[in-house]
Write a structure and sequence with these properties.
By secondary structure, this protein is α+β, with helices and mostly antiparallel strands. It is built from seven helices and 16 strands. It has a seven-stranded mixed β-sheet with strand order 9-11-7-4-13-15-14. A four-stranded antiparallel β-sheet has the order 3-2-8-10, with no helix packed on it. A three-stranded mixed β-sheet has the order 1-12-16, with no helix packed on it. Helix 2 (about 250-280) runs antiparallel to helix 5 (about 335-355), helix 3 packs antiparallel against helix 4 and helix 5 (about 335-355) runs antiparallel to helix 6 (about 365-380).
Length: about 400
Amino acid sequence: MKLSHLLTSLAIIGCTTLAWFLLGIALSQRTNDSTSTLRNEVSGVWGPAITQQHPHAWFETPNSPGGRALVRPSSSRIKVGLTSDPKRRGLIWHRTYDVAFEGEYVFTNPTKIPQTFYISFPLPPETAGLHGFDFRLGEDDQSSQAVPGPSGVVNRAIQLPASGAVTLRAAYGTRGTDSWKYDFPDKRRISGFQLAMRTNFHEINFPVGTGSADPDKRHADAKGYALSWNYPDVLAAQAIGMDMPRRLNAGPVAARIAFFAPVSLLFFVTVVLLIGGMKGIPLHPMHVFFISAGFFAFHLLFAYLVDLLPLMRSFAIAAAASLLLVSGYLKAVAGKSLFAIALPAQSIYLIAFSASFFIDGLTGITLTVLAVATLALLMFLTAKTDWMRYFSKNPPPLPKAVGSPV
């Protein structure tokens, strides 16, 4: 191979790299615009991330700041069912879900005289489609027609005897997006608290700032997880929460694959040029141009097929088209000898490397392994190569195709 041909080939790869970066930027911009626009639409239908605040009560007394003595439940038994139901808008899967909440709280009068307790249960703000709301205070309360105030808080008053107790039962169902939390709004002591959560998914991820479930009370089955939190007596208890499972989003994946595409092309061209040259099959920069175009065709097809087809089907179609273009073209150029190099090389450097982007955290190690393996292969195959002759102005002639006239 002539040195001028090598420099021209590198220039062609550089131009293709620029095209890939422009494609990646366009995909990223399109995804960001779509996400910002559609997120508000999804939140309007399904609601935002839901946070349920811990209820509280108070009674009036001149011995407390502001004339109110705040009382937390002496016992809390809560059941939460989370059903992930992601919705796709544009190129993005939005992490929407349904939640069923049931809470049973016991409030105890800590004084030795009767007190009028004002019990406050805050509903999650800005919920979408809250249904099945039930609010009962005491065993004799047969009415569940309590109505939240303008702030979304249900307040009820009840007379409690000295050291007496009352049980609040509250339940509802609603929908949300991204995550669900149960929060303790102040740093007071939390006692007798238990929360049981049931999910219909196995991807368990606790949001930042929340406590993890009890390790010995996590049970998985075919449907999901059963989790439990227990705070028998805790000061400044951590919030409890769960992030909804993430779906593979086509837009960000296509953009990342496009940005890293030059690595695939560089590996492939290096292998084909060196091994092809050793076999007496010199390639012209025009061959490199068509190889680069065939690689770019994969990313261009994949970027726009995901608008119309499922992610994996789009990937398979784009991969098949690119293999047919590049490996088929090299077979037409130099027959089966070059095709035997091109097909496995393209399958590894383009298809397998691009597929690694479907799994978080796998891309870096895949790239490292490919680089080291490629280096080892080329060092082994070219250890006795006469590089002066390889880069001479008169490279070995192209072998004649089988069956061609002499």
